[in-house]
Amino acid sequence: MSTSDDNKLIEDFGAIIGLDNIKMPESGILQLVFDGTDSFYIEKHGLSIFLYFSIEVKDYELYSQYLRALEIMKPYSRFDLLPRIGFGDGKLYFGFGVDPDELTVKALCNRFERLWEFRLKINDVEE
User: Fold this and answer.
1) Which of helix, strand or coil describes residue 32?
2) Using one digit for the tens of pLDDT, what is the confidence trace for 61-72?
């Protein structure tokens, strides 16, 4: 996928989630900040894209939140979703990869919606 294709894909995705004129930076990492502390990232890795959230967690809650995230994401641990969870620097990271053969706006939106739901569950937020 070319850089212009990447930008079109990210632009279309951004428009759907209510963010106009976003583009993939040359670094290949796009960061969007929610609620002042939680960040959503879109990262380009070769031909694949990885979508993930980082949320701030108190040091004493990090391990328990990590276990909570594992439990929440467990039903989605099918290979095609490529789930990833990790922690460090007072943050919990969780996300999904998107393989090149399924790299569409619909796939990005689907994974974003799931990650948003996970973010709310991990933070114990009711919509």
Assistant:
1) strand
2) 888 888 888 888
